[in-house]
Design a protein that fits this description.
Helices cover 33% and strands 14% of the residues. It has 369 residues and is of the alpha+beta class. It is globular and about 60 Å long.
């Protein structure tokens, strides 16, 4: 036991050195000059037993801090590096939203376009709309805002129907899941709603969802590493962390991540998501991908907004604090302890608020991809 503990301790020390130096994978500026953040992230890891964490902080559209903590590989105790890719789970939804807004900016889609039925974008691609069901009244806006009326009772459709592909799940929803309310009447968080939006993107563009997003959204942001993740450990991508969930042993690798593409399937580094944020934050330092008035039609227009992502073995958060700061935190385990999600954003925010002076550097200009 002593030897195992010593190996683990040495691995963490080596990981810190690799984060500082880049480890031959991703160079960053020195991370030693933000002790407030280091202290709070290590406190977060200790409180919730998180194996590995990566953090990115953006100030005035410049990447001012990028660092990694702990281990990316649970069994071998391989240290994290800043280039590590994590399943970002539901942070995939803002990615999908950017793609939809881009199509709207190009005049190829509108918020009020209907989705199903003879007048819908998808028509009857997934079967006929049951008469009087209300599915033909669902608009793109309803799906974006989680107000479609599609319910998760008797269970989230995207975690049901094993063996079915996305089309099969949508057919099941249309045929056997009556709406809980009329579209637009009530907020009800819906993964399958964003799965449907992924199919809207495919129909409008004539291209696979991942291909369109990577080429038309991510590449213009300078993001090359993001992709839809694999389901099993054997499908793990280079630089991708491993996922651990002691209370749900094995579950991280029994999730159909690929089927979740547009609502929860992307993998990314903290720097990737920081690059995306500076292109949608309505700040003047870096030109946005979209007009401010279009960004403001959704929560992207809020002064402060955040989106989290949660799966077995995954906990992520993307936060626009205000007109000065944004940050990203990615971890390869989630916690069921009370206060976890509050602390995922509160600990980094406290570190940012505690710092009085900031460097003028921009690590976006120094990162080697």
């Amino acid at each position: 036991m002593i030897r195992v503990a010593l190996v683990a301790a040495l691995a963490v020390v080596a990981g810190a050195a690799e984060c500082l130096a880049g480890g031959g994978k991703l160079r960053t500026g020195a991370s030693w000059d933000f002790p407030e953040m280091d202290e709070r992230i290590e406190a977060l890891r200790a409180k919730y037993d998180l194996p590995g964490v990566t953090v990115a902080v953006v100030r005035n559209d410049r990447l001012v801090y990028l660092n990694c903590y702990g281990v990316q590989e649970i069994d071998t105790q391989e240290p994290t590096v800043n280039s590590n890719l994590f399943r970002i789970a539901s942070i995939s939804k803002p990615v999908t939203l950017v793609a939809l807004l881009r199509l709207m900016d190009e005049g190829k889609l509108s918020m009020d376009d209907r989705v199903f039925g003879p007048d819908g974008v998808l028509g009857e691609d997934f079967g006929p709309v049951p008469a009087g069901s209300g599915f033909d009244k669902i608009t793109v806006r309803h799906l974006i805002e989680h107000k479609s009326g599609i319910q998760n009772d008797p269970g989230d459709p995207m975690f049901s129907y094993p063996g079915l592909d996305q089309a099969g799940v949508i057919r099941e929803v249309l045929a056997h899941r009556p709406l809980s309310t009329k579209p637009g009447a009530k907020y009800y968080y819906s993964n399958v709603g964003y799965c449907i939006l992924g199919r809207v993107i495919e129909k409008v563009t004539g291209r696979p969802y991942e291909e369109y997003v990577r080429h038309e959204v991510l590449t213009p942001c300078g993001i090359t590493g993001m992709r839809i993740g694999g389901n099993t450990l054997a499908e793990r991508f280079p630089d991708e962390v491993t996922y651990d969930q002691p209370d749900e042993a094995g579950w991280p690798y029994r999730i159909d991540v690929h089927r979740m593409d547009s609502h929860g399937g992307w993998i990314a580094s903290a720097a990737d998501l920081a690059r995306l944020m500076v292109r949608i934050d309505r700040m003047p330092g870096v030109p946005d991908l979209l007009p401010a008035e279009l960004l403001s039609t959704t929560y992207f227009g809020f002064d402060r907004w955040e989106h989290s992502g949660s799966l077995a073995g995954t906990a992520t958060i993307l936060v626009r604090l205000d007109d000065e700061f944004s940050f990203v935190v990615l971890a390869n385990r989630r916690s069921g302890k009370a206060g976890f999600w509050h602390d995922m954003s509160a600990f980094p925010e406290a570190a940012i608020r505690a710092r009085a002076e900031w460097p003028e550097r921009d690590l976006f200009r120094k990162v080697r991809w």
